[in-house]
Specification:
Elements lengths: L4 E4 L1 H16 L4 E5 L7 H9 L4 E4 L2 H9 L6 E3 L8 H7 L2 E4 L2 H14 L3 E6 L14 H9 L4 E7 L12 H18 L5 E3 L6 H5 L9 E4 L1 H4 L2 E2 L4 E2 L8 E13 L24 E6 L11 E3 L5 E5 L4 E4 L12 E6 L1 H9 L4 E4 L1
Parallel strand pairs: 1-18, 2-3, 2-9, 3-4, 4-5, 5-6, 6-7, 7-8
Antiparallel strand pairs: 1-12, 10-11, 12-13, 12-17, 13-16, 14-17, 15-16
Helix pairs in contact: 1-2, 4-5, 6-7
Length: 355
């Protein structure tokens, strides 16, 4: 057995997907399963689909290409705004994409015509989080331009909150999308098929019956994969958080001072560290570092173990009060945040093991 490794419980992820799909379905909302958090690892993708997900979304065209080449036949969307340099690949592999720049949509139109395809476009609207999206007052004009472009189909409107500005989803900011959609339908005589009202953070509105009626899609990744909702600071009710476990191996155990000896300068990442003198402690080193993972997102399953810090290749632990005997070769287990999962899944030095 090799380490470090993430063991992925497919059964629990499937149950999370089923629960969230059923929850949303009761409010007339479809779930787009977001696969970027695990680099679209195919066994996990298929587990999401087995759990009832009917559409998929990813931010990397390489992941979308791999999913399409695996034989998946459900619609897959690029959820990050396409780069102009990749529009041909986007049209070739993705059924649709989320967009905010008319110039890029025009390029998608040209490539779609050249390839004999119809590419679906969901226009992103910025309702306050200040990441991507057209400002609400500009949406009708931009939609008018899209409707004149051959080769693309205007499918609907979307928004994102929580990921950059930390803005919480609300009835008011989801209603902005619904009102814009109704205005577009009246103005242009078209049907707005999709109103994509947000991500995992928006599930709380669904649970409380506070999402604006008319929103008919949510893009869910973390809620299915980890059962967590960091924007609202909670676990998603009805889901499991035991879906993934990071296992890493101890390579050194020694009793050492808790405060470095000598003049303190900058560490390998340019920071000046600050240490508290807590006396001698039993310290362990795990073969894992900042090159592999967002260390701040790791949580030891043994609550008596404390993470002290990390360099690029070494994770330092205080195991003075560990509930079991920690020695060289011992395996320590961690839960992880979405950010930690994202970096671990991206690292080629960490094994991913569906179980």
């Amino acid at each position: 057995m090799t380490y470090p490794r993430i063991e992925i419980n497919l059964s629990l992820i499937r149950e999370n997907a089923r629960y969230i799909v059923d929850l949303c379905k009761r409010s007339g909302i479809e779930v787009m399963g977001i696969t970027k958090g695990f680099c679209a690892l195919l066994p996990v993708v298929r587990t999401m689909v087995d759990g009832g997900v009917k559409k998929l979304g990813d931010s990397r065209i390489k992941n979308i290409k791999n999913m399409k080449c695996s034989g998946l036949e459900i619609p897959i969307y690029l959820i990050r705004i396409p780069m102009p340099s990749e529009v041909e690949e986007v049209v070739r592999w993705a059924d649709g994409s989320f967009n905010s720049e008319p110039e890029v949509i025009d390029l998608l139109s040209e490539k779609a015509r050249a390839l004999g395809k119809i590419h679906r476009v969901i226009l992103m609207v910025d309702v306050g989080d200040l990441r991507e999206g057209v400002m609400p007052e500009d949406v009708p004009e931009v939609v008018g331009r899209i409707l004149e472009m051959p080769g693309v189909e205007f499918e609907g409107l979307g928004t994102n909150v929580g990921c950059y500005g930390g803005v919480l989803p609300s009835y008011e900011n989801t209603k902005i999308l619904v009102d814009l959609a109704r205005d577009i339908e009246k103005r242009y005589g078209v049907r707005v098929k999709t109103i994509s009202g947000g991500n995992t953070a928006t599930l709380k509105l669904v649970e409380n019956g506070r999402i604006a009626p008319g929103v008919n899609q949510l893009r869910i990744g973390e809620g299915i994969l980890l059962g967590t909702d960091p924007t609202n600071g909670r676990n998603v009710p009805g889901t499991s958080q035991a879906t993934m476990v990071l296992k890493a191996e101890i390579i050194e155990v020694k009793v050492k001072p808790s405060k470095p000896i000598g003049e303190i300068g900058r560490d390998a990442f340019g920071n000046i560290p600050v240490f508290e003198d807590r006396g001698p402690m039993k310290r362990a080193i795990v073969a894992l570092g900042k090159q592999d993972c967002r260390i701040e997102g790791l949580i030891p399953l043994d609550e008596s173990i404390e993470i002290l810090g990390a360099s690029s290749d070494h994770l330092l632990l205080d195991v003075t009060r560990a509930k079991r005997d920690i020695r060289v070769g011992s395996v320590v287990e961690f839960r992880m945040s979405y950010g930690a999962m994202l970096s671990l899944m991206t690292s080629p030095y960490v094994d991913k093991v569906p179980v």
